[in-house]
Input
Amino acid sequence: MKTITHWIDGKPVEGTSGRFGPVYNPATGAQEKQVAFATVDEVDAAVASAKAAFESWGASSLAKRTAVLFKYRELLDAHRDEIAELITAEHGKVHSDALGEVARGMEIVELACGISVQLKGELSTQVSTRVDVASIRQPLGVVAGITPFNFPAMVPMWMFPLAIACGNTFVLKPSEKDPSASFRLAELASEAGLPDGVLNVVQGDKTAVDRILEHPDIEAVSFVGSTPIAKYIQLKAVEHGKRVQALGGAKNHMLVLPDADLDLAADQAINAAYGSAGERCMAVSVVVAVGDTGDELVGRIAERAKNLKIGPGNDPASEMGPLITREHRDKVASYVASAAEQGAEVVVDGTGFSVDDHPECADGFFLGVSLLDRVPLTADAYRDEIFGPVLCVVRAETYEEAIKLINDSRWGNGTAIFTRDGGAARRFQLEVKAGMVGVNVPIPVPVGYHSFGGWKDSLFGDLHIYGNDGIAFYTQGKVITTRWPDPADAGGINLGFPSNS
Ligand code: NAD
Output
């Protein structure tokens, strides 16, 4: 069986722990690979390599760093299909969706190619007589990233390209469920000319994560994953004196006003709720139907939901693939049953689904799509992040009731409003408590040069990821005040606090 290894100091490292995690093909349910789990010593070796590499990489010119990044972008472009295939084979999402993930990750590489402009700094001349002040930003040193299963290429690319463009060196701990994409991204970076040690990948579980959080030579940690682990990461990283940004889970609401184009809203609800089998932190998981839109909207969503083509991700006809594991599939399915018991109306029941036209997929981790209407706010299906193809609809009499409901949610990642009323949309943008807002856009994932991040239990830390916040996160500011006296100046003693004149 193929073993996915670490990537340390510019080469594959098999590891010595004797501990491995299973890597499944979710479409067939078969374990096709295993991934090595790092020991503390292997994490230490990756950090030591990154620390040694920082000596020269951190001091290297912007021209040198960006030359590597431009080459890297070229290689990613040439290998995008291959990376997407790796993602589909381990995550299960359909090939077109995997290609989209690679493209969105590459946006950050493209942003990193332009780092010279972003790191220009500021200069004020003659702030006092013959005194100039410059503000510059410098790298932190060794930084680390810990990433989730649902975007095995994009989320790592939210982190390391900007971090290394800023002059840091990086240790990545990808999800153990679909680790091949990260390994391949590191290999390609090396091929692009990235010096050994600048980007390391340690595969593994809690042992590796905890060592990263405790390691005295790691300056900052970026994390993306579920809310309970994000909270843990933030607390432990801070306890060990590190800068941290920890992005957590979500429950994204899509508000539909009575004046909305209901066909557009139904199409977008389908795309955003069931794309990638609902395993997206920006998936729409609740539609809030305002006024009398509910019955009509639910009817249109149901009609579309029943026609979705579910199958293996490598079949171009499939629109939705399987879930990540059997356990997760069963847990997601249990929310449909519990919602019915707790008072919701099951309009479309996706449990018990099987793929008929692919015999090799009989044991795959498939689940059909479910649509739940009139879901009580007390039901588990409304309160928990399900992270699967289950869409809840709740009804609200008025806009005020709808926005209160959204703002009362413990999460605040993304949200969207569907309306033709510009005034209502504007009010929503200002009033809603979430980090990313869409107006007639269901999945408002910001482009690379704006930052991504939620509010409330969707983000722990201050700075969002990528964009300007990403650059701020991976650098520290320095202000330099210089005086070059005119040869005619006299010095003189003055113990007073420096003031400008
Ligand atoms: P997860 O929290 O289980 O795992 C994320 C990472 O943490 C993995 O690398 C994993 O190995 C590690 N980890 C897991 N348990 C740990 C523990 N006890 N101690 C230390 N490390 C641990 O998340 P997941 O299931 O891989 O991903 C899905 C979750 O990620 C969802 O909640 C989703 O909303 C969230 N997510 C959020 C965003 C965002 O931008 N806010 C983006 C993608 C995914």
